């Protein structure tokens, strides 16, 4: 079991020489070999990657995290940066106040009101790490998945991590030191049995959330502290194997006594409930000493209405569905001709993991542009649904890709309509 660095988990300092001179770098896994560093800091690669991100993201600390995450694989970094920036543009949270976005955007708002988390302003640090809080007491994941599609949670998690990213960058700009994020997750009230079966709703949800953490933000969220663990530690680690890879597991620290969090974080960053001095009197948290908002309970009246979206465009409900099997490493496109101003709506369920996205083509498929970001999904309690306004006339492709390496195809039931 990892114990982590004490008091803020500051990264170890080391000085290395790169292609442009001496640099002080932080982080546990940066190779100091000249060939590696010359490749990492190639002028042309730096310029190419830097052109893909906002100016305030284009810092040495930002790119050092990506280089560590992908061990200097420039092609891998470029691919994931493109996906990340596409998600920011398509969901509309690039260049906006992230806290206001999380409170107002229909997908993010409907998601985070169900979870007990700390406020979105991300302004509490312990040393150089921002401290995020979450509690599981009163949060029933199986019930939440009856109220919202899984995609709501996954899209919202991207936005949450982007807010953390901005807080880190602002801190780095202010201090000249690298920053990170730690999450303190209080497991009190969690039913561990919900995670023992890797095919359960809770385990599938956790696995796909962790997938985003691992692929896009592994060097941002550097520690996950688990408090009040239910059951035997060996069982918890067995559940973790189903949910996260070994590298991500190494970021998890289980604390048997909640007050032990004070061995790792400053009192000012730890809630009064846990023996610290942190209190939130903004009105967001209840009680203020918890520094977390109370989760909105899921009642029968909150269960997801799959017909509502279609009735809003004068259809009787979910349209007749088609069924296909998508083989491993294959894709299935549903192509619709749309005019500017029309709505494209989709509904689907699947029995395995599928990458879903919407792409636009003005020239019959010769070139494509993402208009709804690609994420990996599976079906839980509610079907996957959504809609976009077609901003340009042309072909829109609802694309389902089976990226898994398994030999069993994924069965897809879908309906895509234009109005």
TrEMBL record:
PROSITE patterns listed in its UniProt record: CRAL_TRIO
GO cellular component: cytoplasm
InterPro entries tied to this protein: CRAL-TRIO_dom, CRAL-TRIO_dom_sf, GOLD_dom_sf, SEC14/CRAL-TRIO_domain
Residue ranges constituting the CRAL-TRIO domain according to the UniProt record: 131-282
Tree of life domain: Eukaryota
Pfam families: CRAL_TRIO
Protein name: CRAL-TRIO domain-containing protein
């Amino acid at each position: 079991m990892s114990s982590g660095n004490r008091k803020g988990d500051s990264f170890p300092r080391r000085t290395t020489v790169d292609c442009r001179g001496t640099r002080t770098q932080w982080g546990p896994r940066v190779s100091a070999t000249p060939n590696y560093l010359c490749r990492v800091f190639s002028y042309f690669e730096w310029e190419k990657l830097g052109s893909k991100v906002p100016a305030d993201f284009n810092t040495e600390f930002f790119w050092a995290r990506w280089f560590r995450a992908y061990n200097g694989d420039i092609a891998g970094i470029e691919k994931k940066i493109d996906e990340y920036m596409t998600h920011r543009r398509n969901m509309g949270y690039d260049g906006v106040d992230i806290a206001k976005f999380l409170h107002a955007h229909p997908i993010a708002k409907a998601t985070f009101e169900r979870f007990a988390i700390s406020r979105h302003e991300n302004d509490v640090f312990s040393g150089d790490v921002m401290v995020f809080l979450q509690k599981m007491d009163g949060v029933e994941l199986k019930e939440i998945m009856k109220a919202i599609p899984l995609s709501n949670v996954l899209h919202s998690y991207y936005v949450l991590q982007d807010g953390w990213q901005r807080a880190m960058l602002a801190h780095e700009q202010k201090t000249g030191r690298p920053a990170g994020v730690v999450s303190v997750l209080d497991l009190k009230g969690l039913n561990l049995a919900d995670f023992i079966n890797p095919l359960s709703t809770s385990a599938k949800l956790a696995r796909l959330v962790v997938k985003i953490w691992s692929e896009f933000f592994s060097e941002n969220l550097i520690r996950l502290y688990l408090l009040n663990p239910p059951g035997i530690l060996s069982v918890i680690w067995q559940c973790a194997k189903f949910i996260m890879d070994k590298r991500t597991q190494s970021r998890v620290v289980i604390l048997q006594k909640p007050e032990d969090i004070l061995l790792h974080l400053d009192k000012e960053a730890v809630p009064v409930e846990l023996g610290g001095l942190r209190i939130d009197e903004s009105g967001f948290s209840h009680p203020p000493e918890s520094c977390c908002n109370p989760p909105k309970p899921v009642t029968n009246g909150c269960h997801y209405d799959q017909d509502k979206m279609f009735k809003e465009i004068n259809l009787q409900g979910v349209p007749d569905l088609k069924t296909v099997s998508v083989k491993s490493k294959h894709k299935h496109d549903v192509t619709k001709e749309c005019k500017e101003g029309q709505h494209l709506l989709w509904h689907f369920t699947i029995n395995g993991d599928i990458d879903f996205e919407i792409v636009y083509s003005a020239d019959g498929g010769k070139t494509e542009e993402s208009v709804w970001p690609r994420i990996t999904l599976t079906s839980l309690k509610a079907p996957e649904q959504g809609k976009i306004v077609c901003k340009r006339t042309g072909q829109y492709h609802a694309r389902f890709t089976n990226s898994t390496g398994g030999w069993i195809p994924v069965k897809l039931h879908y309906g895509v309509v234009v109005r």
